[in-house]
Amino acid sequence: MAAGKTNIAQSLEALLPGRVSMAEAVLRQHANTLTWIASELPDVVVWPETEAEVQAVVRLAAESGVPVVAFGAGTSLEGHVNAARGGISLDLSHMNRILAVHAEDLDAEVEAGVTREMLNQFLRDTGLFFAVDPGAGQATIGGMAATRASGTNTIRYGTMRDNVLSVTAVMADGSLVSTGERARKSAAGYDLTRLLVGSEGTLGIITRLRVRLHAVPPSVVAAVAPFETLEGAARAVIEAIQLGLSLARIELLDELMIGAVNRHAQLSLSETPTLFLEFHGTEGATRDATDTFAEIAGRHGGRGFEWAAREEDRRRLWRARHDAFWAVREAWPGMDVIVTDACVPISRLADCILETEADFRDCGITAPIVGHVGDGNFHAIAIADCSDARQLATVKGLAERLARRAIGMGGTSTGEHGIGEGKLGLLDLELGAGAEIMRRIKQALDPKGILNPGKIGSPRGSDA
Ligand SMILES: Cc1cc2nc3c(=O)[nH]c(=O)nc-3n(C[C@H](O)[C@H](O)[C@H](O)COP(=O)(O)OP(=O)(O)OC[C@H]3O[C@@H](n4cnc5c(N)ncnc54)[C@H](O)[C@@H]3O)c2cc1C
Question: Residue 248: how many CB atoms within 10 A of its CB?
């Protein structure tokens, strides 16, 4: 067994000289799950720099029957990058070139290892930006496509599903496939782009992406709106979305989360359930929208606004929101932090949040709530000691009940974090026969099961 690993590592070293590692710390870093899911280490990590090198690694893996787990930045939260059967962790961070920006067509072509922060930094003086912004700024665009990620401004600009025009990917036999070009729409056959977006490295390794860009809006107004109750805040969101206000962001933070964010970011926000909002559009549109939202908030126990019109104030506010996960870790040092993720139709948002809050309270588990509530998507972040088997079982039970509650309300067990290992058992419940179709697609495209085994498409009741 050990000899087999060494042989594979030697063959990889011949393909990618100096870019292969079997060091324990490197293997651990590439299987760090950031959650209660135990790490499963790969045998070896490689850093390809070209598509041809990715092809060569996948061909070697296919010939040897060795698994390959694509790795972007490792920020996923459901054990996605775990190497369930060992094998090769294929780290795409060296493939980080921005290949083209077509300002006139509002699109760009990037390699998979480009991070969203790198792309937006590159676009800074162009009047354009890449819109999808998951909390982890170092997430790669390839990883974000693979998890079908979204972020704070999805209500206006969409998820990765909407922002990826096409991809190039290395398939399980080492062949290179492009799913399309740069057209804004296409009716040319099956939608292979959307098959690969959200496939979590189980159907192909994305090497290049054509992505949409957006024009920076002429007027941007941000606000912080505290509420008397969580229910009031959630009901204000529902009404604002149903009215179609020109909102780009509407994020909910409960009082526990605001407390943690205050301490982490040295803010002094009032510690009550609060909405962080941002309006994009023409000056007239943002003015109308803010006035209308003020009326809605007033009806639901809103306690007025604090405006953040200057860009540096807005940046500070959204940095604080994006750092919510780290703020919670800091506020409860030494404890484990387990992020849940559910999404429901907007009309059920208040019910789902309130039932979830009550469930956590009844079980005696502290869980600040934060979420992209404009999409009906929220997270309860459970604070627990996972070395205590009873606490861990309680949190797992709470997370599963939340997923089932969301599905029961016509929603989903995951709005954005994906399936990984953590939610594999829920796919059949959520999709029924659809989960079986996924297993058949996986079998057809990766018959040897070498691409990220133990995740979406794995045979039922197995990890292979
Ligand atoms: C603090 C924090 C906040 C977060 N907030 C959000 C949020 O707001 N919204 C959200 O959607 N997510 C969020 N996440 C989760 C995470 O950031 C996303 O899932 C992100 O898209 C993962 O990108 P990554 O580059 O780190 O991918 P990784 O974690 O490295 O990989 C994720 C999965 O994609 C596969 N993969 C990676 N690259 C490729 C590739 N090139 N080709 C094929 N498969 C690939 C991997 O095998 C794995 O299955 C958050 C995470 C943290 C830690």
Answer: 23
What per-residue confidence (pLDDT) applies to 463? 47
pTM above 0.90, yes or no: yes
The whole-chain average pLDDT of the chain stands at 95
* Rounded percentage of the chain residues whose pLDDT exceeds 90: 91
* Pocket around ligand 1 at a 6 A CB cut-off: 34, 69-77, 80-81, 92, 112, 134-136, 139-140, 142-144, 146-147, 149-151, 200-201, 205-206, 325, 416-417, 452
For 261, the domain range is: 218-324
- Average of per-residue pLDDT across 418-431: 96
User: For residues 140 and 6, which has the higher predicted lDDT (pLDDT)?
Assistant: 140
What CA–CA distance (Å, rounded) separates 359 from 364?
9
Residue 448 lies in a domain: no
Q: What whole-number distance in Å separates Cα of residue 105 and Cα of residue 168?
A: 19
51 and 128 inside one domain: no
Euclidean distance between CA atoms 238 and 240, whole angstroms: 6
- The answer on pLDDT for 2 being more than 80 is no
Mutate-to-test residue for ligand 1 from 57, 69, 76, highest number of ligand atoms within 8 A of CB: 76
Q: Where is the domain boundary, 68, 91, 114?
A: 91
CA of 207, closest atom in ligand 1: 41
| Cα 32 to ligand 1 centre (Å) | 12
The tens digit of pLDDT for each residue in 85-102 reads 999 999 999 999 999 999
Domain count, the chain: 3
Same domain, 251 and 320: yes
C-alpha distances (whole Å) from 97 to each of 103, 119, 194, 223, 320 are 17, 9, 23, 36, 29
Report which of 444, 429, 419, 355 is spatially closest to residue 172, judged by C-alpha positions: 444
| Sequence-separated contacts (24+) of 430-434 with Cβ below 8 Å | none
CA-proximal residue: ligand 1, atom 20 (nearest): 144
